[in-house]
Specification:
There is one protein chain. The protein is about 30% helix and about 20% strand. With about 400 residues, it is of the alpha+beta class. The protein folds into 2 domains: about 260 residues, Zn peptidases (Aminopeptidase, 3-Layer(aba) Sandwich); about 120 residues, 2-Layer Sandwich (Alpha-Beta Plaits), CATH 3.30.70.360. The strands form 5 sheets. A 6-stranded mixed sheet has the order 1-2-6-3-7-17, with helices on both faces. Strands 9, 12, 13, 14 and 15 form a 5-stranded antiparallel sheet that branches. Helix 1 packs across helix 4 and helix 4 crosses helix 10. The longest helix has 20 residues. The radius of gyration is 24 Å and the shape is elongated. The two termini are about 30 Å apart.
Length: about 400
């Protein structure tokens, strides 16, 4: 083992936390995740694994595919973990320190979700080493295993979309199941909500503030728009799911006006809509438009329109992945761990895989309550549990 290959999951995670990989849409860097992708490429190669850089169009970085092939006839099992993190602004600790104290490792991404990636890579390296020691005629490893490190999960999900749309179709194999790493305290999450985010804009007429009657305020229009949406759309949402809860919607950003002495001619709000499994995201704009149409009839002076969505991400529906979920549960049961499936209100990359009918389960070390916090940390004990689970799953027959 070379100097690059880590001596433990803890040291690998520390090396990953030490690298700034704040999402490029937050940091403004087009190569925001390149350094960590290059680091993992080097580490994976030194572990004796095959690595492949998969370019992500429109960026100066790449998804990293790490694989171990046991045979052409063996089925493929996929693991996935994202490399990006949220902002480090306002953190009360060294975001890149990876300090271990009191059984916890501190740093941005330590919990969400570099721990998943580190333990998946360590488990894969161990799986490959054991395969190398096996007599192929007696006890060969049962699965080809792939681990993909993806970009841009925190904002646009550009990495997993590129993998699903551009990369996977050309690899010559299709996984029978996928494990997506997120902080779930090593409990299986089989359902989560989707996301639709989009703008609504009002258009007014600019005028000098000394003669406001000569203009029409886009902000005043937007006040009525917000009231209508909150009173007649958001309050009407009743759909829920037993694992992920009730459909949600909120208006979280507002921008308008250009100068203190000018009647504003433009205003924009941005809406976050959480889609529960079973809901149709495509129906959302029409339902909102009905509310806006009624508002236009009551107030013909209001000029309002919906913009194209920033992101549409489907929910993870548990219906299609029952067999793979059962396999995950069997491994957890063997380890004496809680195997009861859960749901989540947040979104993950798993939904993109489920959309192409690859059964996916979200499971990883750490607690989501520690993700994105000012002192983000993970219990070091969780790393060993995760590495053992991932390794056992790699050895399960499809």
């Amino acid at each position: 083992m070379s100097a690059l290959a880590p001596s433990s999951c803890e040291s690998l995670l520390q090396s990953m936390v030490a690298i700034d990989s704040v999402n490029g849409n937050i940091s403004g860097r087009n190569d925001a995740e390149r350094a960590i992708a290059e680091h993992l490429d080097a580490v994976g190669s030194d572990m004796g694994l095959e690595t492949t850089r998969l370019p992500v169009e429109g960026t100066d970085t790449f998804n990293l595919l790490v694989t171990h092939r046991v045979g052409d006839a063996a089925p493929w099992l996929l693991f996935e973990s994202h490399m990006d993190t949220v902002s480090v602004e306002g953190m009360s600790i060294d975001p890149f320190g990876g300090r271990i104290e009191g059984g916890r490792m501190f740093g941005r991404g330590a919990c969400d979700t570099k721990a998943s990636g580190a333990t998946m890579l360590c488990a894969l390296a161990d799986y490959a080493r054991q395969d190398a020691r096996q007599d192929a005629r007696q006890d060969a490893r049962p699965n080809n295993v792939a681990l993909v490190f993806t970009t841009d999960e925190e904002i646009g999900k550009g990495g997993i979309k590129a993998f699903v749309d551009d990369h996977l179709p050309g690899l010559g194999w299709r996984p029978f199941g996928a494990v997506v790493g997120e902080p779930t305290m090593m409990k299986p999450v089989i359902a989560h909500n989707g996301i639709r985010r989009w703008p609504i804009r009002t258009r007014g007429v600019a005028a000098h503030s000394c003669a406001p009657s000569l203009g029409r305020s886009a902000i005043s229009m937007m006040v009525k728009v917000i009231d209508a949406i909150e009173s007649h759309y958001i309050s009407s949402l009743t759909t829920d799911h037993p694992l992920t809860g009730k459909a949600q919607c909120s208006i979280n950003i507002i921008e308008g006006g250009a100068q203190i002495n000018i009647i504003p001619e433009h205003c924009e709000i941005r809406i976050d809509r959480r889609i529960v499994p079973g809901e149709d995201s495509a129906a959302v704009p029409g339902a909102v438009e009905e509310v806006l149409d009624r508002l236009r009839l009551a107030h013909p002076e209001i000029q309002v329109e919906q913009g194209e969505p920033y992101i549409v991400d489907a929910p993870l529906d548990p219906a299609a992945g029952a067999d793979f979920t059962a396999t995950v549960q069997d491994v957890l049961n063997e380890m004496g761990r809680d195997s009861v499936p859960e749901g989540a209100q947040y979104g993950t990359d798993a939904s993109q895989l489920a959309e192409i009918r690859v059964p996916a389960v979200v499971i990883g070390p750490g607690d989501i309550a520690q993700a994105h916090t000012h002192d983000e940390w993970i219990e070091v004990e969780q790393l060993g549990i995760a590495a053992e689970f991932y390794g056992r799953l790699m050895r399960c027959e499809a």
